[in-house]
Write a structure and sequence with these properties.
By secondary structure, the chain is α+β, with helices and mostly antiparallel strands. The protein has helices spanning 9-16, 20-27, 31-38, 47-57, 61-64, 74-78; strands spanning 3-7, 65-69. Helix 2 packs across helix 3 (31-38) and helix 2 packs across helix 4 (47-57). It is globular.
C-alpha cells in the first residue's frame, strides 16, 4: 500500500514532559492502552480513547496521528 498512520503520542508526551502513567491517570485510559499508543502498536483506533487522550493533553487528534508515505511507493514518487 505504501502508506501508514503513525501515532506520535511519544513525541507529544516528551514535549509536555508527562509520563505515560500520569497520562493514564489524567485520561482514565488504562496504562496498557496508553502504552500501546505510545509504542505505536495500535491497529484500530478507538474514538473514545483518542478523545480522552486529547482532552488530557489539550490537543487535537491530528497532533497524535501522522500520515506517512513510504518513499518507495509509486504515490510518493509521483509527487
Amino acid at each position: 500500500m505504501g502508506a501508514e498512520i503513525k501515532v506520535t503520542l511519544a513525541e507529544q508526551l516528551a514535549q509536555k514532559n508527562i509520563p505515560r502513567y500520569r497520562l493514564s491517570q489524567l485520561s482514565g485510559v488504562s496504562y496498557p492502552n496508553i502504552d500501546a499508543y505510545y509504542k505505536d502498536r495500535i491497529t484500530r483506533f478507538n474514538k473514545e480513547t483518542l478523545l480522552r487522550i486529547c482532552l488530557a493533553l489539550d490537543c487535537q487528534p491530528g497532533d497524535l496521528l501522522q500520515y506517512v508515505e513510504d518513499e518507495d511507493s509509486p504515490e510518493a514518487t509521483e509527487k
